[in-house]
Design goal:
This protein is mainly beta and 251 residues long. It folds into two domains: 72 residues, no CATH class; 173 residues, Jelly Rolls (Sandwich), CATH 2.60.120. The strands form three sheets. An eight-stranded antiparallel sheet has the order 6-17-8-13-14-15-10-11, with no helix packed on it. The chain has a five-stranded antiparallel sheet with strand order 1-2-3-4-5, with no helix packed on it.
Length: 251
């Protein structure tokens, strides 16, 4: 926004809940009112949609004609970035911010180029310069359920990676038509100096029996060190296609 005039700020070409142009007015108590620009200089905005206060999802820089609004409200998911794979050896997210206490990765139609593989994850404490892959650095467990129903377990107490979709044949992702994976991965407080833990749920089509599969998984990075980057890949071959979207949760 620009064009300060005493307490009144005018902005054009901005849509706010269908209101354009809009007017913002600072009150003496620090509140910012947003509404239609219908009055003259010094008038109170009409059709006010909300009242925003400092520290509640708004940052105000009352400098030379500048107001900056940001999503700083606590308890809210913030979209960070999305990566679309295209015959990719791996997908990586670096610079995980300490401003978030938890991260979510939304998996959408993740497909491998090799049949009967699992999605794996590794972590980094040096922002992606290298990823932890030594023996016994991770533990994980996975439960897959066929829609028949039938359930299968897999897991490792010490491994070189976390198998998000497990290693049982029924849970291995296929590379045929419509054989892909969609789901969520939640990573809990990775910037702390505690073990980094994750959970994941989702659905896929098995390359082993072409059955629809639901899975639930959990894993741990067995090191009391911060994690500021994560890497996803297939247990064999490349990630042919699909989107990984990263979100952060403020505490």
């Amino acid at each position: 926004m620009s064009g300060f005039d005493n307490e009144v700020v005018y902005a054009t070409n901005i849509d706010l809940r269908g209101i354009s142009p809009i007017e913002g007015q600072f009150k003496e108590n620090g509140e910012l009112l947003i509404g239609n620009k219908t009055g003259g200089v010094g008038s109170t905005p009409t059709g006010v949609s909300n009242t925003l206060t400092e520290g509640n999802g708004i940052t105000i820089d009352n400098g030379p004609g500048t107001i900056m609004i940001s999503s700083t409200a606590t308890g809210a998911w913030t979209f960070i970035v999305a990566v679309t794979a295209s015959t990719s050896a791996s997908v990586e997210f670096t610079d995980l911010s300490p401003n978030f206490c938890m991260f979510m990765i939304v998996l959408k139609n993740i497909a491998p180029d090799t049949d009967e593989v699992s999605l794996i994850m590794r972590t980094s404490s040096n922002n992606g310069v290298s990823y932890d892959s030594g023996a016994s650095q991770y533990e994980w467990g996975n439960l897959v359920g066929l829609f028949q129903p039938q359930f299968q377990l897999s897991g490792e107490e010490g491994d070189t990676e976390i198998h998000i979709t497990g290693t049982h044949l029924d849970g291995l992702i296929g590379n045929g038509a419509n054989q892909n994976l969609s789901g969520f991965i939640y990573i809990y407080d990775p910037l702390s100096t505690e073990f980094t833990r994750l959970t994941s749920t989702g659905t896929l089509t098995s390359g082993f029996n072409d059955a629809g599969i639901a899975y639930s998984a959990g894993g741990t990075r067995l090191s009391a060190a911060l994690v500021n980057a994560v890497q996803f890949s297939m247990s064999s071959g490349n990630i042919a296609s699909g989107t990984f979207a990263l979100y952060g949760l403020t505490s």
